[in-house]
Structure formats: C-alpha cells, structure tokens
Amino acid sequence: MSHKLGASDAAFCVSCHGKHDIIPVKQVDSPVFKFNLPKTCGACHDNAKLTTEYRMGQQKVAGHYLDRIHGRALVKMGLVIAPSCFDCHGHHDVFPVNDPRSRLHKDNIVGTCQQCHPGVTARFTQYQPHANPLDKANYPILNKVFWFMTTPLVSVFVFFGLHTLLWLVRSIYLYLHDTKTFRESKILTHVDDDVFTRFMPFERFLHLMMVTNFLALVITGMPLKFYYTEWAKVMFRLIGSAEVARTLHHYAAVVTFAYFVLHVSSLVKNFWNNRKALLDPATGKFSLRRIWTTVFGPDSMVPSIQDWRDFVAHNKWFFGKGSRPQFDRWTYWERFDYFAVFWGVAIIGFSGLVRWFSNFFTHFMPGWMINIALVVHSDEALLAAGFIFSFHFFNTHFRIEKFPMDTVIFSGRISKTEMLHERKRWYDRLVAAGRLEVYRIKADDWEGRKNIAKTFGFIFFGTGLVLLGLIVYAMILRLGH
User: Fold this and answer.
1) Where is average pLDDT lowest: 101-115, 274-288, 323-337?
2) Are 139 and 147 in contact (CB under 8 A)?
C-alpha cells in the first residue's frame, strides 16, 4: 500500500483497524463498517495536513465528502448502497492517483465509477466528490457559480425584506390613525356583490396544482438539503426513509414539468388565437408597435417601464411623500412573483435533471457539471421556498387589508370595491374599452365552496410557515458551525 511506515508509525494499523474493535475483512461491506469509515479516515484526512500527492490539497477531505452526494446519502441518510471511502479508494491498495495501481488512476477510474454507475463514460469521472464551493484555488469554476447564485439569493431577501418592512410599517400607521375607515373599507371589499373575473378556472387549477406540488417538493427536498438537523431526521422517518423522500421528490418534479408545460401551452394557444391583434388593420401585416404593446402591455406578465414607475410611486407612499398608487391588472410585485416561478422552474428543473440523470448528461457534459447542478439546484430551491413562504405570504396573507387570506386565487373573482381601491387603472381601462361587462360575474358557486377553499388555503399557509421556521432554524444552526 502507499502509506510508508517508519519507526514512529508503530501504531499506524491501529489508527485504521482499531485495537479491540477490529472487524473481520469479510464484514467490510457491513453497514456499521461503511458508516464508520468516513469518521475513521477523517481522523487523519480532516486534519489539514495532507501532502501534495493528494489532489485535494490542504482541505478537510472527509468533511467535504459528507457535504456532497455520496457522504449525505451514506452517513447522513443511512443509504447503505451509497459508496464509502474504500469503494473508490480501496482498502490496502490505496495509491496516489497518478500511480497506475490506483483505482482512481485515469486508466482505472471509469471502471471504479461503473461499480455503482453502469455505463458511465470518462466525462462522468470528472465529477468531484470532495469539492468545496468555497475553495477558490482548487475549484475556481464551482466557486464562481456558488457566489453567482448566493449573491442574488442574499440580494433578493435583503431587498424584499426592506420592501416588506416599509409596507408593513406604512399599513400599520394608516390603520392606527384611521382604524374606522380601514375596517369599513375591508368589510365592504368582502361584502360587495358586484364582482368581476380575475382568474379563469384553468388558471386557478394550475395554481392549486402548483401550490400542492411546491409543498411536496419542499417537504421532500429540504430535509435532503438540511440533513444535519434533527427535524430532517424526523421528517425522513415520517416519510419512510431518505430514499422514499428522494423518490417522492422525483415524482413531484414530474408534476412540476407537467404544469409548466400546461402553462406554456396555454400561452402559445392564447397568442395564436389573438394573433390578429398583432396585425396592422390597414396593411394586414404584422406591426412591431402592436407586438410591443402586446408583449409589454398591461394584460401581459412581462415587466415594463410602468412597473418601475409604480415601484417608485409605491416607495414614495411608504414614506408619506405621495399618494397610494393605483395599479392595473398586474402589479410589479405580482410580475416579479410570476417570473421568479418561471425562472425557478427552468433553473431548478434543469439542474435537477442533471442530478437525476447524471449518467445520461455526462455523455456530452463534463462530470463537474454535476457539482454545479448541485449548487444551482440547492440555492435556487432555497430562494424559491424562502421567497414564497415570506414575501409572497405577506402579500396574500399578512397585509392588513388582506389578512387572514386573499381568496382571489380560489374564487377567481374580485369585487368592484377592491378594484377601485387597488386596481383602478384596470377598472378605468375596461370601462373606456367597453369591456367591463365581459368580466362581470352574474352568478357562480363560490359561496358553496368558500369554506372548503379557505380550509385548504389555511392548511397550505400553515404548512408553509412551519417549513419557513424549520429552514431558518437550519440555516442558523449551519452558521453556528
């Protein structure tokens, strides 16, 4: 073997095999041996005194193994099928990677990886099982990706945290200084029978599909990310095991792609059905001006310059420097919510596929893309969960005028009072175009299903708050270490 013993190394064997707890060689594949091996190897390979013959340089190799896919699966989640140290490095046949006898030598490493990943190519072996995203010297690309993902994550939380705080303070101020008017306006919003359609049944169905599936992804995914917490272990036991959680996470991912495809298909269909609106009536040809108006118009979810004007006016209102702005069909924060989900599904979805089908993707991508996919998937999922369970919940639940719940996504309808209070530009535009009656609801079944919808809404809301608390606790715990 490659370890060179000298006079001062009389106890070398004991450091690996133990004194009175030596396990027979035939039992090296036992769960106890596999689970304990990273700790045993880490006794030396976590002391930051590794020689340069190891590619990892001076870093905590065993520690970063535990933070990567193999270590999480084996030690943290108890999956016996996951590889331990000896599966890749060997037992008594450990050699430097540039030695032809090493299992990780360029001529042998494909066969080593194929023990667990049949059919993989040489590209797959470029995956870095001990990679540390904070190690700029050894993993420069991964480090750049880590900061590229972490910067917007922190920025979004800081920006919207301040935005939400200012909004909340302004609302409380108005409530305390004119409680009677505030209460009367809120009551009138809910009892006004003059209502209009805001969300179609298909849109409400997609939202319900998205909410339930999003919670499923968080419930099965966050324990995998925060594996070191006690609540993650409890959730694994409730679900069945880490492997069951992983499988359910994959099923939920399929549902995510399903509603994403349904939504994009509906956009394409609506665009095609309304294609005549893009034509110049005089020439019958496509008009760039009409295309621009359609893409960036008030009925589109694409952000426009008007959103910036609304944002500025809204912030002036926060500080009492202007009147409360009126909005059109969509507000600037709703458009941000929409594109956050749109972007998130694309980024989280693709990075998740790379992790799920790593054998396939590494036929034409380098293996270190799996490391990047792990960082991207993890950070983007954390951003999505944190944003939805905090800022989105504020807009739909914690705003004083909405508390305890804005039911529009369940009922699909909005009262005239609420339109005039918050979306007067939309109301005025519909009146000017003579289209208000098209949106007016004369009869529906909302009253009959209101209590059921609210019950589900509060279940979703409560579950999200609990998950947010667990995520915050896990992050604080991590920072403490």
Assistant:
1) 274-288
2) no
Dmax (CA) of the chain: 97
Rounded CA gap, 71 and 228, in Å?
12
* Angle made by CA atoms 426, 428, 429, in degrees to the nearest 5: 65
Structure tokens at 244: 């069951």
pLDDT band at residue 478, thresholds of 50, 70 and 90? confident
Cα-only R_g, the chain:
28
How many residues make up the chain in this entry?
A: 481
Rounded Cα distance between 70 and 52, Å, is 24
Rounded distance between C-alpha atoms, residue 53 and residue 142, angstroms: 22
In the block, residue with structure tokens 């091996």: 37
Q: pTM, whole model, 2 decimals? A: 0.86
Average pLDDT of the segment spanning 372-399: 91
Task: Tell me the two tokens of residue 370.
Answer: 């799996």
Q: Give bridge partners of residue 441 from the DSSP assignment.
A: 195
Parts of the chain belonging to CATH 1.20.950.20: 141-479
- Phi/psi region, residue 240 (left: phi>0; alpha: psi -120 to 50; beta: rest), is left
Give me the sign of the Cα torsion angle 344, 350, 353, 354.
Answer: negative
Residue 52 has pLDDT above 50, yes or no: no
Name 395's Cβ contacts closer than 8 Å, sequence gap at least 6: 333, 337, 402, 406
**Residue 277's Cα: distance from chain center in Å?**
37
Which residues pair with residue 414 across a beta bridge?
Answer: 196
pLDDT for residue 376: 93
User: Is 221 in contact with 249 (CB distance < 8 Å)?
Assistant: yes
Among the listed residues 211, 226, 219, the one whose alpha carbon sits nearest the alpha carbon of residue 244? 219
Residue 223 near residue 232, CB atoms below 8 Å: yes
Nearest to 53 by CA among 105, 8, 88: 105
Tokens linked to 388:
């939805």
Query: Strand pairing partners for 415?
Result: 195
Structure tokens at 209: 């599909």
If pLDDT is split at 50, 70 and 90, which confidence band does 184 have?
A: confident
Characterize the bridge pairing of strands 195-197 and 440-441. Answer: antiparallel
Domain 141-479 bears CATH identifier 1.10.3210.10: no
Range name among 48-52, 193-197, 200-204, 414-418 with the lowest pLDDT average? 48-52
Closest CA to 108 of 291, 61, 268, 96: 96
Tokens of 54: 């190891």
